[in-house]
Automatic annotation (TrEMBL):
InterPro entries: DUF4307. Keywords: Membrane, Transmembrane, Transmembrane helix. This is DUF4307 domain-containing protein. Pfam families: DUF4307 (PF14155). It comes from the Bacteria. It comes from Ornithinimicrobium kibberense. Residues 1-31 are annotated as: Disordered. The chain crosses the membrane at residues 38-58.
Length: 154
């Protein structure tokens, strides 16, 4: 049996290269050097985008006041103590607006406190908010450097 078709039980040979007719009308294949160059260009583009994202993120936060409300204590029907941490330029005074809310989320007390320069950052603080009616929570609403204008509400 000398036919070109495989017999039963014989696997058919696969052609790895396309024929000339199959290649007609297709764009030429890229070489390994061209593919390597595109990988390099793509990798550089990704690296530049990551660097820009990091730069934008840092420039938006460096030099700003950051605070975290770490707790509160309802002292009486007319007072809430708010505990918070400040991360800021330790040589500058900071003003923080503290608020207290009742069970219906209405603001029942608000005060601004000035925290003077500190030898270290972050620093922990406890300040009092006087309330007009019983409050269930107290928190820091916003902070800013004392020598700058307060930020607008967004």
């Amino acid at each position: 049996m000398t036919s070109s078709s495989p017999g039963p039980g014989r696997p058919r040979r696969l052609r790895l290269e396309p024929s000339e007719e199959e290649l007609d009308g297709l764009p030429p294949r890229s070489t390994p050097a061209q593919r390597r160059r595109w990988w390099l260009v793509g990798g550089l583009a990704v690296a530049v985008m990551v660097a820009l994202a990091v730069w934008f993120g840092l420039s938006a936060t460096v030099g700003r006041v950051h605070w975290v409300t770490t707790g509160h204590q309802v002292v009486s029907d007319a007072q809430v103590d708010v505990r918070f941490d400040l991360r800021r330029d330790p040589g500058r005074a900071v003003v923080c607006q503290l608020e207290a809310q009742d069970a219906s989320h209405a603001v029942v007390g608000r005060t601004e406190v000035t925290v003077g320069p500190s030898p270290e950052s972050p620093s922990r603080h406890v300040e009092t908010v006087r309330t007009a009616s019983p409050a269930i929570t107290g928190y820091v609403e916003r902070c800013w450097y004392a020598d700058e204008a307060p930020p607008g509400r967004g």
